[in-house]
Amino acid sequence: MDAFILQLLNGLDKGSAYALIALGLTLIFGTLGVVNFAHGALFMIGAFCSVTLSRILTLSYETVDETQKDFLGNPLVVKTPYVEKWFGPETGAAIIDWAVPLAILFAIPVMIFVGYVMERGLIKHFYKRPHADQILVTFGLAIVLQEVIKYFYGANPIPTPAPGAFTGSFDFGVLLGFDPNAIIYPYWRLVYFFFAGIVISAVFGFLQFTTFGMVVRAGMADRETVGLLGINIDKRFTIMFGIAAAVAGLAGVMYTPINSPNYHMGMDFLVLSFVVVVVGGMGSLPGAVLAGFMLGILESFASMNWIKDIVPGIDQIIIYLVAIIILLTRPRGLMGRKGVMED
């Protein structure tokens, strides 16, 4: 039972990332009808927003400390971060320590701007083009963004630690009545799961309970009719593209302590996120979230050693096997609208 619960937690952790990325993908496809193969790159850019803020906060100036000597007897050169000079040693050190959560505030405007430029500068010219053209141009854009990140940040992963308060592990088993140390789980992975829940709830609440969101949902169902009512639905859809980019970026920001950012991390998640969207149903937001968590849990359980002993390599293909089975029996996905992907 303890192994079952641990794998369930691992699945929820993976599913959180899949669900957040797939949610943004589905927002774009549902509003604009665009198959955006650059969405994984948005996840990557969000992760590097965290890296960038960490580097900014650790910018330092040098001073000579006469009271300390190096091994040659010379006065020691000490580097002091500017934030410690401005806010004091304790506050400055706390700001640096909490760089990843603070990167949320930094990433939101950056990602909205990147999404706006991407949609207005490139993708809007492919609205009425075949999906194959959209895939080619957005995949090419993803490669360009990947190479830009590689040029400025290098090819090696960049460790970005979580705040010190969340670097340990939580004895989850004690809460459930197990022996101490039976189920140990990292604090930050639990934080990521709850953060994903907050973001997903915020997106659904925004679409469900605000006038803007209601108009967007109406436009997703019948774009022409909404336009005839005098509403500039194209402008609202552009804003939704920015919001979808922000969702992907926030997923990347908070994922950095779990997986050190590297230039190809967007591609690593891209294919999986599209499988999640197709399984959930193209254009279905609840389907994307459901499929994200479901496939994350299945992948986690498939990685158990005794299962891999029975079916070697099953953890690498389980998501695709499930996708094949679902699409053969229900082409529109779990919660897709009737007629979508069925003709």
Topology as a string of helices (H) and strands (E): HHEEHHHHEHEHHHHHHHH
Largest sheet: 2 strands, antiparallel
- Judged by helices, strands and strand pairing, the structural class is mainly alpha
Total helices: the number is 15
CA(first)-CA(last) distance? 44 Å
The count of DSSP E runs of length 2 or more, i.e. the number of strands, is 4
Low-confidence stretches: none
Strand order of the largest sheet: 1-2
As a percent range, the share of strand residues is 5-15%
Q: How many structural domains can be distinguished in the coordinates? A: 1
Transmembrane segments: 16-35, 42-61, 95-114, 190-216, 237-258, 270-298, 310-328
GO cellular component, one term: plasma membrane
Protein name: Branched-chain amino acid ABC transporter permease
Keywords: Amino-acid transport, Cell membrane, Membrane, Transmembrane, Transmembrane helix, Transport
How does this model look, in words?
It holds the Pfam family BPD_transp_2. It is built from 15 helices and four strands. The chain has 343 residues and is mainly α. The protein has one domain. Strand 1 and strand 2 form a beta hairpin. Helix 1 runs antiparallel to helix 11 and helix 8 packs across helix 9. The longest helix is centred in the N-terminal third of the chain and has 31 residues. The two termini are 44 Å apart.
